[in-house]
Amino acid sequence: MEGFKRYLARYAAGRRVRGVRVLDAQVVRNVSGARLAEAVVGCRMGRPSRHGKWLIVPLCEGRLVFHFGMTGGLAWTGRPDGEPRWTRVVFELVGGRLSYHAMRKLGGVWWLAADRALEEVTGTLGPDAAAIDGECFVAAFAERRGRVKAALMDQRLIAGIGNELSDEILWRARIRPDKPVPQLSRQKLEALDAARKEVLRASMKRGRIPHERGWLQGQRGARSPRCPRCRGAVRKDRVAGRTAYWCPRCQR
DNA sequence: CGTGTTGTTCAGTT
DNA sequence: TAACTGAACAACAC
Q1: Which protein residue's Cα is closest to nucleotide C6 at C1'?
Q2: Residue A120 pLDDT exceeds 70
Q3: Does the pLDDT value for residue A83 go beyond 90?
């Protein structure tokens, strides 16, 4: 999401909207295409911000809110040639166009007038995972009783960590994904916090989760995934309703 | 044709 | 209440 934010900031921020084309009305969630166009045409896109996996772009008196589901993205096209496959909404800007695309339509685009709260769209979100300090992070786990992977991915607790990031953080902290939170020692919680900081720092620097040497995510989808640390076989299990990759030798 | 998928939400259950 | 499970959404790839 940080990558999308920077992409929008680089290509679209500061440009005036000339028109909006809604190719699939289903992904514009809370207003009609006509109402969206009425709200944003003539406005200049402001500097985007991010809270967890939500992208917020101020525009005139309101803001556009984007969520990308599992398969969404943004694409900037300077010249009027073909849009990306699965483009759902196109913002025609002075100097180019910004396409919102999504194969599966699990995310969407919202328009929020100035007097509406972000929470109306996003639901309750915890503080952003990249913005909090260690004390706040550890405190978030204080009352949790479930599995650590579920807690990490709970957006109401801490916003921004999804399936892949949670696996990567747990692997780095050497904690198994199904470990009950109450069984984590103070030391382990601090290791989790250190892993959280390092994984997010590196991911935000690159604009995506690295899938390279020394990263568990490089093994996701491999025929026989190997732990980058101990070379043991990586397990693939269902934890907290999602596919978890983890190393049973390193993660206890 | 069946299975799995980077996210979220909801109903139902423990 | 907290938290879990499964289904739903949607559109593929394999």
Answers
A1: A241
A2: yes
A3: no
